[in-house]
Description:
Layout: H1 11-21, H2 23-57, H3 62-68, H4 71-92, H5 100-110, H6 117-132, H7 140-157, H8 162-181, H9 184-196, H10 201-222, H11 241-272, H12 276-293, H13 302-310, H14 315-334, H15 342-363, H16 371-387, H17 390-401, H18 407-424, H19 429-436, H20 445-452, E1 466-467, H21 472-481, E2 486-490, E3 496-501, H22 520-523, H23 536-546, E4 550-554, E5 562-567, H24 568-580, E6 588-593, E7 596-601, E8 608-614, H25 624-627, H26 629-632, E9 636-643, E10 649-652, E11 665-671, H27 672-680
Parallel strand pairs: 1-2
Antiparallel strand pairs: 2-3, 4-5, 6-7, 8-11, 9-10, 9-11
Helix pairs in contact: 2-6, 2-7, 2-8, 2-10, 4-6, 4-12, 5-8, 5-19, 6-7, 7-8, 8-9, 8-10, 9-10, 9-17, 11-14, 11-15, 11-16, 11-18, 12-14, 13-15, 14-15, 15-16, 16-17, 16-18, 17-18
Amino acid sequence: MSSPEAPGPSRTSRFGRFFWKDPNTQFLLLAAAAGILGALGAVAFRLLTAALTRFLIHAGDIVRGAESLPIWGRLLWPTVGGLCGGFLSVWFVREKGPSGISQMIESVTLARRPVRLRTALGRVASSIAVISTGGSEGREGPIVQLGAALASSVSRHLRVSPERVRILTACGMAAGIAGAYNTPIAATLFVLEVVVGSFSMTLFGPAVVSAVTSTVVVRFLLGDEPVYHVAPFRPQSIREVVPFIVIGLLAGPASALFMRALQEAKKLFKATRLPVPAAMALGGLIVGALGIFLPEVWGNGFEGTDRILRGNPTLGFVALLFVGKIVATSSTIGSGGVGGVFTPTLMVGATVGAMVARVTHLVVPTLEAPVGGYALLGMGGLMAGVTRAPLLAMIMIFELTQNTAVLLPMMLVSVLAVTSARVWEEDSIYVQSLRSAGIVWEKTPEATMLSSLRVSEIMRTDVVPVPRTLPLPEILNAFLRTRALYLYVVDEKGTLLGVIDLHDIKETFRAEEVSSVVIAEDLVREIPFVTPDEPLTSVNEKLWFRDLGQLPVVESPQTRRFLGIVTRRDLLGAFDREVLQHNRLLARVRTVSADGGEVDYFELPEKHQLVEVPLPRSLEGRTMSESAMRQRLGVSVLAIRRWSDGGLERRFVPGPEDRFQSGDLLVVLGPDDAIARLRAS
């Protein structure tokens, strides 16, 4: 009698093994890890800033600390903080281009510049030195960059795909915003509405996980209190719609004034040609001078905003705060400060709402028009005008105060603010920063991605032009030897004269009586050309307008020196790779024949990829034959990229006995699902 069979694994254990090995589950766990890292970074930043303020100025509240200082102290501390912040920025921040949230938008949307941890830590240190001593910049910029840098570093260390590195970087941003302001919904909306520019479901889930995880950690460590405390606000009369409309309409030009002040301040400080530490010290001195009369403008704006929301300031006082906070923030950021403008924007908006409340009291005394409630609407209006994200503004103000009654008027104010802001300034503050750094930015992420690509990135340089004196028989032979439809004609200096189209010379095939006298220069015709720095959108227009298959690339319109060509297929390959993320047309192959060679694309079968994948840890130390990737996973290893101890790169086709090493990059070909299994193994 046979013995009973051992019981197999239960359904629960099988599900558990599947659950933890599922790539999507693993990715969500990484998003949660990004949330934890972002939360810890935000908590550390807030605690260090408060501790340094207490140590230097002997006050937990930067505004109270400023009020307790003598005049010389109010001038000294922001100047010293700016000087120290400038040195920290010079020592640790070596990158050029946009900084803060603008850089994060560039990194996530275009994936052109990685978010480096050293740079993020340098910006955090610089911002802590500035904010702790009174400098007027927001804490969200360095906190967001720190969260993104931590998430990006971990994802790169774990060798996840480049696309998922971008998603996790965005998750780190969401975690930073949630950790800085205790606002998980607004943090998710910030990433989707401001950073990505679309409500992509690919990003939505991981961003939610990161934001919620970050908020839970921050509330566990610091408590669950709303950031701003304000008396309950509820509209009491239909007549209040009028001042709500006024707040929305004023928020637009106020946000434009704020953005222009920042731009002009950057130009003025740049014109001084001072070293960064000296410029930031000068910016701190200006803030210190303002603090003699308006200590409320010190710091990131939280304390000043809280006073407006809780107090009952006069019209003249809030008008002075409106001007003073704009000047203080422009001086700090314009001189080289690396912080954000989120919290200063909220304070400027609070002054706008408070001014409308005071004027409403004077004009219609029967309306209650609470200063704190109207200040909230002004905060959301300025945020919407500066970021051009009305939904973010609505939810942000609600989460900052946990007051549901503010949502209805906030909807009206935020939409009007965005509409009126566009009359004065076309772009948001972040897009302005990107454009000023020379980055092309369009209305959709796809258009931005293509506009950021240049001809030099996809042009072919292996096309040999023909001299202008080439006789007709040799021209015909050149067409017969290759599959080319065009021959590019140049003079003795390499200047492009034009193109010979195969279809234009068909009639000359049998005209033997003229073949001896006709040369290439006689057959050329003009053709549009492009330069290496032109965006691919320009190539697309020129190709389709003339229904051409390719265009010549010249050095410049003046010299017209021939450099190569760009083809319609190259353009489609770039679109497929950068926008559709399919990598269908990525494989270039060279056909070698007796009389030379030519480059063409090899179009992969449907649902196949030719990609470069980091070697999974499970394959380290195995040989090609032992790994049996073709049999187990259905992928073929075409090549290996390996670096020696001296940093030299070696590329080779592996044999059966070649052994994989840690750090190898595999060039593999296989179906989409097989590539996914390889990445997860």
